[in-house]
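In the current project phase, our protein records have gained a structure token line. A sample record follows, to show the layout:
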Amino acid sequence: MIFWPLAVSSWGKEELAAMNNVIESGFFSMGQLTKKFEEDFAVWAGTKYALMVNSGSSANLIAVSGLRYVRDEETVKLHTNLPEVIVPAVSWSTTFFPFFQNRYKLVFIDVDKNTFNIDVDKIESAITKSTVGICAVNLLGSPANWDKIKQIAATHNLWTFEDNCESMGATLNKQKTGTFGDVGTFSFFFSHHICTMEGGMIVCDDEQLYLAMRSLRAHGWSREIGDSDTFRGEQRGSAWEENFRFYLPGYNVRPIEMSAAVGLEQLKKFNSLLDLRKKNADFLLARLQEIQTDWQLQRQNGQSAWFTFGFTNRNLESGNERRHKLIKLMDSHGIESRPIVAGDFTRNPVYKYLDAEISGDLNGASLIHDSGFMVGNHHLDLSDQINTLCRLLIESEQ
């Protein structure tokens, strides 16, 4: 039996020392280390602004809430027809929930069966007079087709939201993912490219959006906005008053200093962590070329960051049966696996609670839901594990 978990730790003595320094300082809430991590991350991403929060899910919540108050405040207030956002049918739950929570209607469209990302050929047919934005996800490390998405958005005057929580370090045309949308989000959960315990980041170049998100992150107050005569169209009070004056219906999703301290150390070693993930992917791609199987690895668009390895089986009649057999084989050999994100999200029980509709067929999402699975990728050499997996792929089809 081999050992191949879905996630492993990328921490070393540097991260532990950074945490101990915070503990010894006695200051634990969001402070100077958070500010430093935001500054360094903005430099790494090549954006004007970066805002740290306590998770990738919170990053999505604050980013969508920021769009709601900066781009769509009057539209949402009308109450008649909810503003619509086009979303891919395959992603994580908290890609979608912030839109519902901010009173948008979700319009689900299919994903490409090869890249698993939003099917750009189906976006325009889903656009209506109520459409205000497009949400696209760079799934499992692979960039979506942002050239086409941005072209469509510009043509129809729509904003773009980029969920990059699984794809830190991926690039398209030499540009980092997470920086294509009007706002982009990152996650630093345990299994992701860098880990800060929990944690997330939002990046953008729009100052007004950034300031609104800063307010929304911490209670909706203006304490961190800086010296200006007005904020959100309101006259500012004295410095004493502004410490407890609220402008937006915000949250408390502030990060802690220990997470920022760890993030600073993880960012230093990020390139080496990503290189090792890519080496595993290169080895897997080479091995797959040597075998005959209906199992197909997710196809790269641009340069993938290879968060995980996602597979689907192209035999429509027996793909689901083969997946059941393969999962049992992998379990018996110590290989952990899971569904691809949440499968076709419209087939989850929670769908009935959402303001949502489906545009067109969801054949690509159904393929992923019925026959797809994924295994972990790490910053460790997985050659032995990959060799075993390839043998099991063949065995599952016999």
Q: What stands out?
A: The chain has 13 helices and 15 strands.
